[in-house]
Every structure is written in C-alpha cells, then in structure tokens.
Amino acid sequence: IASRRAKPDGLVVVPRREVMAFLHPLGVEELWGIGEVTAGQLHRLGLRTVGDLAHTPLSVLKRAFGQHGGARMHAMAWGGDDRVVTPRRGHDEPERSMGADETFTRDTDDQTVVCRELLRLSTKVAARMRSAGVSGRTVTLKVRFHDFTTITRSRTVGDATDSAPQIYATATELFTALGLQRARIRLVGVRVEGLIDSATSTRQLMLGERARGWEDAERAVDRAVTRFGGSAVRPATLINAARP
Fold it and tell me: What is the fold of 97-198+211-238?
C-alpha cells in the first residue's frame, strides 16, 4: 500500500506509531484481497474507509464475510498481516515461480466456468514463461471460497514444462481431485514453481512421439500475439467467452 502512495519511485516509510493515521483514511479497496465485488459489499454496509472497517465489530464482519474473511479484513484494517514476506535480492535474480489468478465477478459453483478460467490462466502463465525463457516442474492450484478460506494443491510433473496444455491438464486434475460439490468459489489461480532456464531443461520423449509439436505451435501463437495482440489466437473454448 505504501509503495502505491509514492509513485514513481515506490518508496515511503510509515513509522509504526503512524500506521493507523496512514491506513484509516484510505478506501477499503486499498487493502489486499478486497476487490471490486467485496468493496461493493462493504460500501452497502456503509463501510467506505479502512477506519470504518477497523471500527466495525468483528462479529458483524464475520456474519457478513465468514469467519476467516471477516477476521482477516478486521486484522488488516488494524495493520495486522501475518503473511510471510519473501524478499528478492535484486532485479537480476530470476523469479522462482510465475502465476496468475482471477477473482470472479460473482461467486460461482459452476465447474465449467472454473475450468474455463483455469485454461485462460494456464495459457497466460505459459506465455509469460516462454517469454522469460523458463520452464517449471511444479504446478500449483489455488482456490478461494466465498468465505475467503483459501486452499492450494500442487503436483510435480516429470519434466520441466512451459506448455499451456500440460499446465492446464495438471491444474484441472488437481481441481477435480478436490471433489467439490456445489462449493461457491470466489477466486482461482495457477502457478508454476521451481523455474529453470528452458535452454538447460530436457524432456524424455515417449515412443513414437515427435520431438516438436505443441512447442512449435505455441511459439507460433506467441509470435502472432506479439504482432496482432492478445485476442489474435487463443483456445477455441475462450472465444466469445465472457470474463467471469
């Protein structure tokens, strides 16, 4: 939050004793995890600033947003956040993972909608990886439910990959294995971890498999997207599909 208030350098110091004075005048949407939909719900409750949120009884927030969601928002409104900070030493240090997630406009229990979004995210992540020249072996799925409860599931594949079909297949297998029955989902995410330089990665071919296939096709897609834009080439499932 502080870095967003100090453009273009992104550096500002908020002393501990001034945290509340800094936070409480801000709009609720400035807090991590509060998107357009949640901000709208808070506004309808008459809560527009972080200070409004901080001074709302915790019991009210839990009734409106669930045990975990209400407690998390209340804690963050008072400057509390127990997430671990993972530092990077500098701009030259390679990323260890790449991912993307999407918050649905409305909570959904439609697995077709969820899987279509996993395809879009997998395609996006794979394109970023190819652009950076990296591949990864571990695919992680993130699912956040309507009450802000969040779970992750990971699977390590045999060879490092930057292929959208393989990332998507692994993500959907992880999602299917959850066995969710009409659970209302707020957000899904796909991440590939354990990144290495693609030039150093090798893959064991199956008997009769072509040495190049999807790899050539995806790089052709990358070239088309670079030249004509992101909507030039995409999976047929995503054509004319409204964003969730």
Answer: Dna Ligase; domain 1 (3.30.1490)
